[in-house]
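Listing S7. Sequence submitted for prediction.
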Amino acid sequence: MKAIINTDKAPEAIGTYSQAVKAGTTVYLSGQIPLVPETMEMVEGDISAQIHQVFKNLSAVCEAAGGSLADIAKLNIFLTDLGNFGTVNQVMAEYFQEPYPARAAIGVAALPRDAGVEMDGILEL
């Protein structure tokens, strides 16, 4: 049995997907880029601002599913510049405490709307 998770506190889907899908106690979070939910425009600022916005968006979807960032078991981070890996670690430390989720950081050529970062994950409630 699947349940679709949707919240207006995160950007609406800009394609043929759901913000998240819950199957049993597992929630599969779709990728979030640094869109401001109210305007559907990219957040203003540097890569740090983009990373913060992505975590805010992920947090909103986690909460809509009945959880929080602390319930993320696996986090995938996609960066158009792997030179920003250190910034990801610094910002991530503001949102997560040990034990940290499993994680991958992947360098990609491009992301939707020319974002510098996108993240998705798996939440276990």
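Caption to Listing S7: primary sequence and predicted structure tokens for the chain studied. The first strand starts at residue 2 and ends at 5. Helices lie at 47-64, 85-95.
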